[in-house]
UniProtKB/TrEMBL annotation:
SUPFAM superfamilies named in the record: TPR-like, UDP-Glycosyltransferase/glycogen phosphorylase
InterPro entries xrefs: Glyco_trans_1, TPR-like_helical_dom_sf, TPR_rpt
Pfam families attached to this UniProt entry: Glycos_transf_1
Record keywords: Transferase
Protein's UniProt keywords contain Zinc-finger: no
Residues covered by the Glycosyl transferase family domain: 382-536
Name of this chain's protein: Glycosyltransferase involved in cell wall biosynthesis
Amino acid sequence: MSGNGGEDPGELLSRGDAARDAGDWAEAAEAYGAFLRLRPDDPGILVQRGHCLKEDGDPAAALALYRRAEALRPDEADIPLQIGHALKLLGRRGAAAEAYGRALALAPLETDPWNEWRALLPHLTAAPADGPVLDLSDLVSWYGHRRAPSGIQRVQAEIAAVAGGATLCAMHPEDGVWRVLPLGLFRRLHALSRSGADPEEPAWREALSVLGAWRREGAALRPGPGAVIITLGSAWWLPRYATALRAARAAGARHVPVLHDCGPLVLPGQVDEATRADFGRWFSGLPALADGVIAVSGATAAEYRRLMARYLPDWPAPPVTVVPPDGRPATVEAEEEPEPPPTVAATPAAGALRLAGLSRRRAAPLALQAARAAGRVHPDLPEEPFVLLVSSLEPRKNHLLALAAWRMLLDRRGAGGTPRLVLAGRRAPGDGPVMDALAADPALAERVTLLHELDDAALSRLYRGCLFTLYPSRHEGWGLPVSESLFHRRVPLVSEIPALMESGRKGAVFFTPNSAEDLATAAEGLIADPARLAALAARIPRHGGLRPWAKVAEDLLAAARRLAATPREAPPALVPCVPVALGHAHAIGPDPALTRAESVQSGGGWYPVEDWGVWTRAGRAVMHLLAPSSGPARLALVFRWPPGAQGLLRITLGRAGAPVSAAELRPGVREEIALEIGAGDPELHLALECLPGTRLPEGREAGVGVVSVAVMAGGSPADRVAFLENRVLVPAIPG
């Protein structure tokens, strides 16, 4: 059929293809151009004509055509790759790097976009962040030590991979600065972490090398008004995080962390003291630094409210909303209709059983490939029925309870009637008792297999191949292995604790928490009645009743925006005459004194809090203090000069409606001062300016150390006496 002017589109394409193959770029471009006048929205020919123009020496014209094609096919990775080539020819290396990054994000395992993007990485820039910002510091740190993700890290990765319109960032613990994480680099790490578990694989090591350089040299995040920093993982282990948040909030950004669980406060005996202290200080800072909290379950939200009321009763807790991480993989590998679970076969031949995995962390890739080819679930598993427990071997996951229940089953049913128990998860601090229990009971050990460092494919095969799954955890925020079991339509047998009752509501069987007897009885009921087990599995909804991760991400971003826009209650005013100590004094749990200390610091002019107080940075540091009244006020400041200090300290106290009060001090004079200010707005602004700074022994450039601050009524001798008593006297403990 002919088009306009009698030209036949097919003939034009043939003419263009022949000229292209002959290297006659001008002729090919002319023929393709004629075709596009007839069919202007053909993305393939737009790209072909762009190639010809580029080869003929006109990369600018090629670029325009590539951009038209990209608008028509935004999910085709080759088009932004070609845009990058054209931009590079035009000398626009920063824009080329951005285009290669888009190609890499679409095809993260492809070699060409990865190599091109890496070569131009130094030319990448970052625009100011004015929308949702996903902080992946926890996940990025995890990648530095392990390849296969655990539960919380998997949630972060899945959300970040599909959160459209969000900026990604991460912070190095020794840096204190968020750096914009390029989407292409993140998606390559994510794809590699899912496709294998070998941490020594060259492609993984190469990606980690790029990540390591980026963590130190990548473009710094510039949050401003409209930015909502959403901490997807934990942040309490980052010493400079609070300082960075204060600076971001001073620039107009808002902060909404995701709360996965309150384990260090609910089960303090299950974590070390340093973790309890870090978590407690982070929790104490939430009323001052967070605009809202996203909990992963109703149970976690209830715990958050209870703990806030218990530890910080006088502080308005940031509002909390629930967004469950009930997402499913984009590529559905689970069976639409589950095969009936296998039955418990006769006792395997002697010598076929062993405790696998204690001496190895993962099966060799060749062994895995051979197992797949032979249709086996895993090379370390005999071909017999098994029950699966997926979890790291940390104490709160309660593997000892599962072992105790399996010992009971062996006593009741014998080895031939008891399926193998597979513990799939990484080693963890505190797992010694699990290993000791297996070493002390050889008969039990023969029916237990440990598997470590599994990739997604191996884990999926384990789920599909098991009779059912166990999850005896003492405490959870959500319980991702329960969701994964339901996704593969395998019945999860789980502790009847609040969070797992939410994640398992669409098909789990529950047992009494911490009861080995009840767990053994419930497991035996599933083992001995295959028809019942199959019926329970058949009732699990398609895909386990889970939703796409893109929907989880969409709901999470919407919840963060709502929370960030919700007006917050004002903090309680300072208690008159009572010093606010800025040091943490080695506090272990949440403490209102820590909340108060966090609330008075503002902006980024501060270093991390220490036990005695906090150093300011060289330059200017600001404090905001809500006085008990609008009347005249007196402020008492206790500070510390750094060793060898030589700079001038200028202290300025201000409030709306009153003249500023100021003082200048040089090193060597007293380390406390009082300033008076007239009546005005209740909020006081205290600025500490110290230039030049003084280099501390560890290399930081400090201004001055702040030990405590107190506010009292101006011109009131009684308040001065009360202040001195509060500073010096130890209160008596009522009998």
